[in-house]
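=== RUN LOG ===
request id: a7f3
mode: sequence -> structure
chains: 1
length: 181
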Amino acid sequence: MDNKYFYVSYEKENVDSSKLINQIVDSKWMETDTFIINCSPDYSSRLCQLVNHKLSYLNDNELYEVIDLPMPYPIMSQVWDSFDREYYQFEKYLLEWVRRYISPNDRYLFIDSGTLRGKNFDKVKQAIRYKLTNDNCRFASLYLQSDSIFIPDFYVETFNKAIQGGLLFEWENVNNPNWDY
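=== RESULT ===
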C-alpha cells in the first residue's frame, strides 16, 4: 500500500460497533417507531445489521425496519436508483427519497460506517429539516474524520486524515478508484 490509512481490522470494527451500540442505548433515544436508515449500504450494511439485532430487545424483540439510502462516493455526485435502474443526481434523488420514506410521525436513526467529509449527512439533514424535528432523527457513525463539516450524534472515534490517512476497513478494496486519496 502506497497510501497511509486509518486502518480498521475486523476486530476493531466489532469492538467499536459494540461501543456505538452502547452509546445509542445509553441515550435512551430509540423507540418502537424508529426506522434505521442504512446510509451507503455498500459500506454500512454490516453495521446496520449489528445495530438492528443488538437493539431489537428495545423493540419487543422485533427488528426495526431498515431503509436503504445510497450515497455517492466522494468523487461522484450521483447515485444508482435500483427501482428506476438509472443514475440520478444525489440532491434530486434525496428529495424524492425523503418524500417517499420520511414521515413526521416517526423517528429515524441514520447510520453510516464513517463520516468523512460530512457532506452527504449534511445534505440529508437539510433535506429532512422540513419533515422532522431534531428530536425525531439522530445520526451515527463508527468513525468521524476530524475535518468533517458534520458531527453525528453518536460516533466512536475521530481520526485525522492528514496524519493517520483515509479510512480503510479490512474488507475494502484498497484499489477502489472511487476514493480521492
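=== NOTES ===
The chain has a mean pLDDT of 93.
The longest helix spans residues 10-27.
=== END ===
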